[in-house]
Amino acid sequence: MPTLRGRTAVVTGANTGIGFEAARVLAARGATTILACRNPVKAQEARDRVLAESPDADIHLLELDLNSLTSVRKAAETLLVERPTIDILINNAGVIMLPHGRTEDGFEQHFGVNHLAHFAFTGLVLPAVLAADAGRIVTVGSNGHRMGKIDFEDIPFERGYKPLRGYGRSKLANLLFSYELHRRLAAANAPAISLAAHPGGATTNAGGVGGSQKLRSRLLNSVPNPIAHSPHMGALPMLRAAVDPQAVGGQYYGPRGLLTMTGPPVIVRSNARSQDTEIAARLWTLSTELTGITYPL
């Protein structure tokens, strides 16, 4: 991994799990690292953990609640003032397996937090990414995207909702967004690229996970499992997408092992639905309308 001194990285959801592991490594390699988190107390605890390991790390906090577009706008405004140039933006934070509910702005929770909030945040801070010599935007997907389907006639997901379906739809949206952003950056000859990555079977307690899922995570951490690995290993695909000199826009990284669940990070392929350009363009238009964010491209 190259030295990152002089570069600025922003990681959403960086206080725990794969987000923390990614931020820890970026900071250790010299990047000015911003932990964009909902809970300031937990974010400070994460910062302290990084500094305990890397006392010279240049690490900062940004309050960002993806459940609220007001918070997203405020965080973006603060970030642009403090960091006019962003070399790496990792859209990592997310919720999983929630019962049907709505964000502060009335969106179904998985779709609102995992996709729409990151769509808005990325668009708002894009000028800083474009100000970098070779900015990168890495959006974290999941194997769960294979279970996702976007019904444009039922965006609130009021018919046939299941937590896994809600999560799968949001992860499909993450990949559609990442690929469409890549196409738009390329068409504009912009000095930035968009990539995606997924952690495989990383044993983390993702935001919003229910009790049974937390129990499953504890079991996976204690019992050898051929399709589960550590949060550190789960962070490697997003780190490779963020810093590998050979990476190019539009690529998708994940573990190389069984079912792309474990192992070192390599280029992997998402399903055909995630690569549908018509669905991606339609989702982009919808996301613009729902968030009010227009990209400066």
Notes on the structure:
The protein is an alpha/beta fold. The chain has eight helices and eight strands; from the N terminus they run E-H-E-H-E-H-E-H-E-H-E-H-H-E-E-H. 43% of the residues lie in helices and 13% in strands. An eight-stranded mixed sheet has the order 3-2-1-4-5-6-7-8, with helices on both faces. The protein is globular, with a radius of gyration of 17 Å. The two termini are 31 Å apart.
**Number of helical elements:** 8
Determine and state the CATH class: Alpha Beta
The major β-sheet equals: 8 strands, mixed
Helix content: 40-55%
How is the largest sheet built, in terms of strand order?
A: 3-2-1-4-5-6-7-8
The overall strand count is 8
Count of distinct structural domains: 1
Integer average pLDDT:
92
Helices and strands: which structural class?
A: alpha/beta
Spell out the helices and strands N to C: EHEHEHEHEHEHHEEH
CATH topology: Rossmann fold
Low-confidence stretches: 207-213
> So, the CATH homologous superfamily?
NAD(P)-binding Rossmann-like Domain
Under the CATH scheme, the architecture is 3-Layer(aba) Sandwich
Task: Give the overall shape, derived from the CA principal axes.
Answer: globular
Distance from first to last alpha carbon: 31 Å
Strand content: 5-15%
Keywords: Oxidoreductase
Protein name: Oxidoreductase
Family: Belongs to the short-chain dehydrogenases/reductases (SDR) family.
